[in-house]
Sequence to fold (305 residues):
Amino acid sequence: MSEASLPTALLSAAPSARARTGRFNLSAGGRCALPVIVLFGLGFIAPLVAIFAYSFAQPRTFSVFRSFTLVNYADIFSLSNTVWLSFLWSLGLAFATCAALAVIAYPIAYGLNRVFGRWSPLVSILFVFPLFVSENVRLYGWVLFFIKNGVLDGSLKALGFAGGPQVLYQPAMILAGMIYVYLPFMLFPMTLGLAMVPRDLMDAARDLGANRWQIWREVELPLAMPGILIGLLLTFVLGIGAVAEAKILGGQSVIVISHDIEIAFTYSQNWPLGSALAVVVTVFIGALTLAVFSRLDLDRLLGRR
Fold:
């Protein structure tokens, strides 16, 4: 090869060399996302893999990845197993919490968007502030307030009354505690959904002769539905995994599925059974989540169009 053709050959070979080595180099976005991907893998994917593997281990053993059995799932789906009663309690409480919070949170979210005006930030802070206090501390505060000879009962007796009602350790009290704890998780997605409704569309519907009920049903509610569905989903997922409310306010009068999973991992030392229970609950919640997100326009929700 002549000296004149040598630089040309080197230049022609350079792009192909860069193309070969570029396959193994991450882009700038990939390099920036690498810490998040590693954290996501170690903090979320790895525990799920471990739980899934343990669910196929022999009962009351720790022989993960060394044995394979379906006896844990057979035990769960057995008709004689009472774990489904716990699952039904969790489902019922979660659905009831979502239904109650949808009714309670919607007027508040509407007020934050349309009524409260310059007081909206202060009202939002009032709903956020309880999140800075531990959930258990707040629930034990309820216990001290409603327990016999507690704040309410003792105050009424001091005023000459017979005493306060005995409301603790009942399913209704568990539901009330869940409504109290999960209100912000329903309120703020719902507020975001209502904020996405253009005022112009509502004014146009009013100008065309629609009444307030028609505007809410045909314009406001459909456009706010993404935020409402996210609030319902978030509340449901938290509600089905709730255990503190049942243990503290319910006094274990109701056993929820999260309590059964905790018992399997702690007192029973049956990690494979607890893992199988966790897998069943996770699959159910995952299927529900996919069903909800299939009905959402995430591009519009995130402001991409």
In short: The two ends are 57 Å apart (CA to CA).
